Amino acid sequence: MAGFKEIDWNRLWRESRRNRSCRSKGSGDWDRKAAGFARRNRNSSYIDRLLGIIRPEPGVTVLDVGAGPGTLALPLARLVKRVTALDFSPQMLAELESQAAMEGITNIAAVKGAWEDDWLQLGLEPHDIAVASRSLSVDDLESALVKLNSFARNRVYITDRVGPGPFDPEVFAAVGRELEPGPDYIFTLNMLYRLGIYARVDFIPAEYSAVYASREEAVDSCRWMLDELRPGEEKRFNAFLAERLRRQPDGSWILLRRRQPLWAVLWWEKSNCSPGTDSASLSPRSHTAV
Question: How far is Cα 203 from Cα 240, in angstroms, rounded to an integer?
């Protein structure tokens, strides 16, 4: 019988991702979502709670991988020496740079790049802290974790889904589908353990309901979960929205949810890692470089 540390969590991660209900989104998908995503997440309680876990010191440097429109990078930049924001969506980075300019923030470097790119070729160097906040959507989990760890000098923080995370099972049920969200934080935690990285785990509950600037934005956000509606699903989808969407006195729209999304924050001190965890060949199972 194989021991726990011999379980191939990378293979299980890939198998679970192949069975998930939602397809992976490319940079073009995120480009189209950039403006609304930036507006909705700017004042999220998630950020304050995550910053309370990170506890950034004024003199540190931070690498934010999958930074999006600066949801975390902008508030971090007000607290630390310097932030490097890495994302593969040009429009997300444009939103970040525009907001930084509006606020007079000058200590953020925006870099276009993906998990799969050679970060050294992009000019990245190790930072005091490395963060991947809700951005660990990769096919090769093991390589991504090793890579993120190798670009941190002191601490690493990852935020991962618990169960369906931001995906609402009731949206899927409304159109007659069952939600299979794919792998969540428990895969990541077990992978880290196998790599000799002993992470702590905190949990951040998110807001029950999401607020949108327009009805169209709310509808697009729900469709984002479903990829595209199949024949016969449109009527059920519209009925769900009619029941759950409410216009607010200020003209915004709120989408009511019955289930509170939950995020897991996995973090560790580099000093608590086993020797050799910065190596890309931590196990006999070789993996392509991320």
Answer: 29
Domains, the chain: 4-168+178-208+259-270 (3.40.50.150)
Sheet holding 200-205, edge to edge: 108-112, 82-87, 61-65, 127-133, 152-161, 262-269, 200-205
Question: Residue 91 has which token pair?
Answer: 């429009």
In a structure prediction context, what are the per-residue pLDDT tens digits for the chain, which is 290 residues long? 456 767 899 999 999 998 887 766 555 555 555 555 555 556 678 899 999 999 999 999 999 999 999 999 999 999 999 999 999 999 999 999 999 999 999 999 999 999 999 999 999 999 999 999 999 989 999 999 999 999 999 999 999 999 988 888 899 999 999 889 899 999 999 999 999 999 999 999 987 678 888 898 888 888 878 878 888 899 999 999 999 999 999 999 998 888 888 999 999 999 877 766 665 433 333 333 33
256 phi, psi to nearest 5 deg: -75, 135
- Distance in angstroms (rounded) separating the CA atoms of residues 170 and 181: 13
Q: How far apart are CA 78 and CA 105, in angstroms?
A: 7
- Amino acid in the structure at residue 40: R
Q: How far apart are CA 225 and CA 162, in angstroms?
A: 16
φ, ψ for residue 74, nearest 5 deg? -65, -50
Residue closest to 76 by CA, chosen among 88, 86, 65, 61: 61
